[in-house]
Amino acid sequence: MAAASPPFPSSSFRNPTISNLTSLKPSSILVSSGRSRFRCQISSFDNQPPHWSLDFLSRPEPIHLIQNPSSMSMPAASGSDSAAKIVKKVCLFYSPETKALADRVASESDSIELRSINWRTFEDGFPNLFIPNAHGIRGQHVAFLASFSSPGKIFEQLSVIYALPKLFISSFTLVLPFFPTGTSERMEDEGDVATAFTLARILSNIPTSRGGPTSLVTFDIHALQERFYFGDNILPCFESGIPLLKNRLQQLPDSDNISIAFPDDGAWKRFHKQLQHFPTVSYISAF
Predict the structure, then answer these.
(1) What are the backbone dihedrals phi and psi of residue 52, each rounded to the nearest 5 degrees, phi first?
(2) Can you name the residues that pair with 217 across neighbouring β-strands?
(3) Nearest CA to 54 among 44, 45, 46, 42?
(4) Which of 98, 194, 195, 208 suits a disulfide with 181, CB 3.0-4.6 Å?
(5) Structural contact between residues 19 and 30, judged by C-beta atoms closer than 8 angstroms
(6) Res 59 pLDDT > 70
(7) Backbone phi, psi, residue 20, to 5°
(8) DSSP result, 200-244
(9) pLDDT tens per residue across span 199-248
(10) What is the sign, positive or negative, of the torsion defined by CA atoms of 143, 147, 153, 154?
C-alpha cells in the first residue's frame, strides 16, 4: 500500500478515520482527520494482513489502521456446518390419535422435540386440559399435529390450538392431515350449509404468535379454491400425498401395467395432472 500526500503537521493526524468508502472504487480508501485528507490505493485484497501501515515523511512513526475483525478472512465453513446453523428446532405437540404418527415424525429428525399434553376430562365429559412446562416453549417454534376425526374431538383440540400461540412462542404451525369438511364446500340448493367454510372460519380465529399468522398444513384438500375460505389470520399451505402414491406404484413389480381410475369428474379435475403419465380408466358419469 502506498500513500500519496504532501507533508502535514503531526498534530493533524491524531485519531484518523476512514470515511466515504461507499463513494470510492473498491481499491481506494479515503482517510480524513479534521480538514486534512489523503487517498490510499490498494492493489489487491488477496492475502492482506489484518494490520495496515501508512508512512509519512514528516512523522517518525507510521499510522496503523486496524482492520475490522468482522472483515478479516475466516476459514470457509463446511456445507454441513452451514446447514446446522439454519436448522429450525420445533416443539411438536400432538393429539391422542396422532401419537404414533408424531413418534415416527420425531424419529426422522433430531430438530423435532416431542411435547405432551394432559388430555383429561371433568366428570361431565368436558375437557380438563393442561400443557406441562408451558414456560419452556417461550421463544420456540411450535407445531401441533391434529386429528379432526369426529366432531367430539374437535373442541378439545381447538382449545389447545388456541392456547399455544399465546404462550409467547416464535411461530405456530397447525398440521391437519385431513380436512374433514372439505367435501361440503358449496351449496347445491338453497338451505345447504357449507361446513367447509364454517371450519375454515373457526381455524381463521387462531391467535397470532410472535412470528405472525398461524401456518395451516393440510393434505389433498377437496378443492383448491377452499384456500379462499380462510381469513387473513391464517396461512393455508396445501400439500399432496400423490407423490408418495406415485413412488409406491413405481416400486410394484408390475409398475408398467397400472391404470388410474377416477370415481367422478371432480376427482379427475383435481388429480389428473399429477397422474397424467399413467393410463386412465374412464369413469361412469351419474348424469
Answers:
(1) -120, 150
(2) 175, 237
(3) 42
(4) 195
(5) yes
(6) no
(7) 55, 35
(8) HHHHTTPPPBTTBSEEEEEES-S-GGGGGGS-TTEEEEEE-SHHH
(9) 999 999 999 999 999 999 999 888 888 889 899 989 999 998 889 988 99
(10) positive
Nearest to 181 by CA among 214, 215, 226, 213: 226
Question: What residue type is 168 in one-letter code?
Answer: F
Q: Rounded CA gap, 3 and 38, in Å?
A: 8
Find cell 380462510 and name the residue.
230
What mean pLDDT is predicted for residues 95-102? 96
**Could you state, in order of their start, the residue ranges of all structural domains in the chain?**
2-70, 86-239, 249-281
Q: Write out pLDDT tens, residues 142-180.
A: 999 999 999 989 999 999 999 999 999 999 999 999 999
φ, ψ dihedrals at 128, nearest 5°: -125, 90
Q: Is 86-239 CATH 3.30.465.10?
A: no
Cα 139 from Cα 90, distance rounded (Å): 11
Grid cell, residue 173, equals: 404451525
